[in-house]
Specification:
Blueprint lengths: L16 H4 L12 H19 L4 E2 L2 E2 L1 E4 L4 E4 L2 E3 L4 H22 L2 H5 L2 H17 L2 H9 L4 H26 L5 H9 L5 H21 L1 H7 L2 H8 L5 E5 L1 H4 L27 H4 L20 H12 L7 E5 L4 H4 L1 H27 L3 E7 L6 E2 L4 E12 L5 E7 L6 E2 L2 E5 L4 E11 L7 E10 L6 E9 L2
Antiparallel strand pairs: 1-2, 3-4, 4-5, 6-7, 8-10, 9-10, 10-14, 11-13, 11-15, 12-14, 15-16
Helix pairs in contact: 3-16, 5-7, 5-9, 7-9
Amino acid sequence: MKVSPEHRIPIQVQHSDSSQQGQPIYMRFMKGKWQTWRVILHRLLFFVYFILPWLTWSEQPLLLMDLKQARFYILGSTFGTQDLFLVACFFIFAALLLLYVTMRYGRIWCGFLCPQTMWTFLFILCEHIFEGSRHQRMTLNRQPWSWRKVKIKVNKHLAWLFIAMITSLTFIAYFVPVRELVTDVFFMQLSFSTSMSLLLIMAATYINAGWMREKVCQHLCPYSRFQSVMFDASTSVVMYQEQQGEPRITHGRNSRSGKEEGMSQGGCIDCKLCVQVCPAGIDIRDGLQYECIQCGACIDACAHVMRKQRSDLRLITYQASNKYAFIQDRVLRFKHSFYGILCLLSCIALCVYIVLRPTTFVEVARDRKQLWHINAEGYIENSYNLKISNTSQCAQTYIIDMRTLRPYRLDKSSLYVPAGEVRYHTIHISIAEHESRNPISFIDLLVTGVDCTKDEVVKKISFLSQ
């Protein structure tokens, strides 16, 4: 559905002075409400990311994507290639959720949940620990090279490499069992593919979070480019309240106050603290820009300055450009409701599929070496290879039988399949030569679980007698 131009927020493609001149960005840390929430979320997500590969459920990994065996272990359930529909449903739900959240709350994902933002802030924290505050980092970089400077820089980069290595090992642990991976790393027995993946992810983490940083968001990530399509007048964004802040109160030998110019003064004292704390190095006072990731650092910085000035002004806020647009405009209400309902329906479909999905999958393939043959008893015999997948959380014993009555013969057999495992079994079906009337006939093969789930799977197979 199209939204009228007056309901959109113009995205100004402007850069800060440091971005224009290609200068490095020295971010200043600032405490405040938004940064407290960001730190809490980042710590929680880091904890989940690093601890999840070690957790188990019913003697299975809590989360493991075993590409070698083409099986996914998620919360005690096992998913295989037959569950690709589930992957499609998940990505549709994730895309709709991102679209809906962006329309309501702007780039909240970029500022608080994006892995690039998380690791960038972590690497900047390392800089702060080894090189000092923003002013100290700037001073250090301007100084000529010395033993002290080399020592500080080497320690910082070693910390970056260590974080990148732990990040890479943890990421690989989502695809290789973590205990097996740690053992292979300790004894240096990693395969070539695992070693290369480890080095590539380590290098990507080190380069993206340590060197590229905001350039990844500005030039590589497409999300910042098409966000303006999703924004409207009811979208909450970080914005500068120009009517309260302008004209700015400037200080200096050549500056004139608002009183001298005959103008009423605004609340902004032009301290540029909002620029110093921005990880993208932009000036939010120039308007909404696509580089802004809405981390809220400028809000906390401005609030800190206003408290020192003993002012209750809120010059930088996180709100919609039109607070009443959602209430007043039917188009916006319909659009938000439509995408919200789509998001809810996709979530329901995903949950229903997970709950109702069968826990037993059976694949039957004819023995390709010999389509049919005469066995030692003089019967026409066909051989079949069975692949039985048990995706439940308990071990199962399966009885293999036929629904089809005589004249076909099958020795009833059973197969034990542990929870989340796959087992293979070969069966032989035969018929007396004088009882075979058709060159091709069809038989219903029945696989029945006798333990916890008691699944029953019927497979129609063909029997060849000529």
